[in-house]
Amino acid sequence: xxxxxxxxxxxxxxxxxxxxxxxxxxxxxxxxxxxxxxxxxxxxxxxxxxxxxxxxxxxxxxxxxxxxxxxxxxxxxxxxxxxxxxxxxxxxxxxxxxxxxxxxxxxxxxxxxxxxxxxxxxxxxxxxxxxxxxxxxxxxxxxxxxxxxxxxxxxxxxxxxxxxxxxxxxxxxxxxxxxxxxxxxxxxxxxxxxxxxxxxxxxxxxxxxxxxxxxxxxxxxxxxxxxxxxxxxxxxxxxxxxxxxxxxxxxxxx
Length: 254
What we know:
Helices cover about 35% and strands about 25% of the residues. The chain has 9 helices and 14 strands. The longest helix is centred in the middle third of the chain and has 29 residues, at about 135-160.
């Protein structure tokens, strides 16, 4: 687990971040956490699933970037190629943390041990006069917005879970060499249950602004076909012949 230190010009005046810090953050992630505000954009380029946080059991909304762990098919030759870059990728390596001086307030924290930090190369975090650089100022704005987006995402997750709209699935991958690994621990929207909701429940979903992201998540499953094409372009990966989605034997998503 990373240890965060409050970012201050007094302690970090000379600290710099690698120009490709966002790529370094994402390149080994086959799932990337999302906010509800990003769903409609992300659905245009990658499948969206839920997973459980292994530490606290909470739902995590994610963009699915590869069939292989430690791989991200949206990074090609050191460049991000998807139409949308997830917010947590844009803000890395900066995080929100409780202020050491006032636990009721948030401040920006960094994990100084990460390899993206240096004192000799990369982008400056602070100007010579101690003011935030343009990059840090932009990140601050994104992180401040993320406080509200995180709350909205948790409310959305809890609401659709209470309605029983999450369905556990497995992805059965059939490689051309005959191997058939199964990817588990994924949840998607149960379209049948969504369509069977009464008009009052549907109106409430619409009123809360939840119908559009639910429909976008369902449509995002078609991006699995594009992901197979990306996978099969990578020479070091075993080509995929086809995949199959099946309902997991784990039938509850409470």
